[in-house]
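Mods, move this if it's the wrong board.
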Amino acid sequence: MQTTNDSVPSSRRVFLGNTARLALSAGAVALLGGKDLLAQTMGGPMAADVGILNVALGLEYEGINAYQLGIKSGLLQPQVVVVATKFQDDHKGHRDALIATIVKMDGRPVAEKSLDEYAKALKADTLKSQDDVLDLAVRLELGATNAYLGVIPAFKDPQLAKIVGRLAADEAMHYAVLLGALGRPLPADSLPFGA
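Not the wrong board. Structure tokens:
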């Protein structure tokens, strides 16, 4: 079974579609990468950027909670729990960077929902096996990879594109590891991400 953008949860598809119209400004990405001084000199449409960053933050919350649901489900083997916890920690790092960026831009980070709300939205009650949990994670990681890649073309400065590329690389790595855990082959086509 090959994972496509059609299997990406609707919130991620919406974000992917919006990134084509609303790309992060170079200033927002500079803040995201910890380059405060550079960000201060660049300016840009900060309100739109905060909105996009809040969508990304919402998606990171979704990823964190999806892994939490998988970890607490009792369906994962112990060695898979170790990997899921590592990936959840990566998403927590992304969350923290996004929150710091939004605050530095004088924005207000969106609030995280309850675990029960994420469980309902992600249909956690349908997860009956380790493969079900991993399949959900594969779809979410693919959506996150494509979402981050969707904003890269907006940048003129290769260093700023590199920062967002690093986030996408994290998500792509998670995706590839999860495919392997499911015994699925890597995508057959070259350039499988960002389309």
